[in-house]
Amino acid sequence: MTEANAISIQNLTKRFGHFTAVDHLSLEVPVGQVFGFLGANGSGKTTTIRMLTGSLTPSSGKAYVLGANVAKRVAEVRRRIGYMSQKFSLFEDMTVEENLRFYGGVYNLDPDEFAARREYILDMADLRGRESELTANLSVGWRQRLALGAATIHSPELLFLDEPTSGVDPLARRRFWDLLYELAKTGVTLFVTTHYMDEASHCNRLAFINSGRLVAEGTPNELRAQHNGATLEEIFTKLSTN
Amino acid sequence: MLNRILAITGKEFLHLWRDPRMLAAVLLMPVLMLLLFAYAISFDIRNVPTGIVDMDNTPTSREYAQAFDASDLFNVSYRADTISGVDAVIDEGRVSIVLVIPKGFGKDLLAGLTAEVGVYVDGSEPNSGRVSRAAALALTTQYNRELAVRWADLNGVDISAVGGLEPLMRTWYNPELKSSDYLIPGLLVVIMMIVTVQQTSVSLVRERAQGTQDQITVSATRPTELLLGKLLPWSILALTEVGIITLVSKWLFNIPLRGNLFAFALGTFIFVVCGLALGMLISSFCNTLESANMMAIVVAFLPSFLLSGFVFALEQLPEWIQWLSCALPVRFMVELTRDVFLKGAGFAEVLPEMSFMLIFAVLAITLAAHFYRRRLR
User: What is the spatial distance between Cα B34 and Cα B184, in angstroms, rounded to a whole number?
Assistant: First the structure.
């Protein structure tokens, strides 16, 4: 475990009764990378993320996030990470402003900090002028960018994104990934799960899991080379059916 | 810590504000229930439609019938001098009590003999039937006494020199036996129960179902902070509603508030804690809003109507139901409220009820915290 790794997992395992959701998973994610975490539905991606964010206790194994043992220093870890789920976790009956203000309060930002972050997010997500619009009335693309803003309101060093683009049109997905790259440029590590292989090919590194076990890891190019030039789709299908 | 709790509490109030139906349900339902129970569902007996069949038709019989005319309780709407039409008017529901004064009533009385009158009561509505029968008896007894006094006067007997038993009836705490005095303190408890149990369980389940609970948890907000933030608004609302209903019942319905207000406030606080803990317990067992709602109705709504003594006096229910009622805090809160409002109780008098509720609160919180934590893991 070095400071160069944003995430370091050793033999991480989670069992629910007789079912093993994550099975002796070991993984290193270097700081500043866009890391794609791939696998079919039910392969254990979300369970892994929940253990890394301290929402689930591992049955065995260790997880270090930003150099800290998640099991022991969960509060510290949580202050430094962000999390955005497929559900976006916005309050649809509240306005853009109220959603941001709420997450600012939950992250305990002081007024100056909040004001600065609010400006930044409104520009980043192109939401200026829509501050008092109800979130329910925003299109999915805007909601997705607002969710990203809310998840990063406290300027996290590491951001977990659990299928952040499912159900979003290709144009909005492209725009969203542009935002992710900008975040990565500022030094934020991104840990992304996705089912879109075009998105996966934009990642620095990829990890495939199947039935909770790591089945392949490497850069997109390394993986294509290992599989004799197959596309990521073909690799995904092959690795997920074995 | 405070920052986070306030952020969550503020958000809860925003949800409420943005949901007009919910707001109406929370703010208007108690007022509606109050009006409904105070005006419509009254157990007070007044203006019982009454028939008088005076077959005697003498000054004495008319004087006797006059006593019924003068009473608030009876509203004489049918008069006849034969009994032949009585069956019909009772059947048609035009009268629910008929007084039959037989021929010879006045003559018998003047002769110093005992006269008899017939009282027919329509028992299909037992409550008013029972009350009007008792009232008719009371009026007759009173008339009887007047006759005795008059007889004594006529015969030169000093009534005060003659020993006699005189029943003195007195109803305590609620001398007019007004049902609103009895119902409204109970209603207060029912409303508190609904606001705390139902609303908290639904709001907790909604947070989990829409995924925002995960998001908040990941923000290093401790479960305690989340819970406090979510429970605070409903506690504030419940206490505000208690205040409003107390004022309304005092000024609009003249419900006496005789006892120690602080004892009532403390009891209310403990009861609200019980309700919130019950709401938490329900939310930890339910995954959908529908199931939380249903369970809240079963746990909060039905027992507070049926097992609290709110409408049905517990003493009149089977013994096992009386025991069952001890399992929930409503019955103790209803007792406490009535004791304070009607009997003028202070801390000492309501200590048993408070202790029971406190025990319940501690148990429920412990259980709820246990299941809630398990849910989060």
Answer: 7
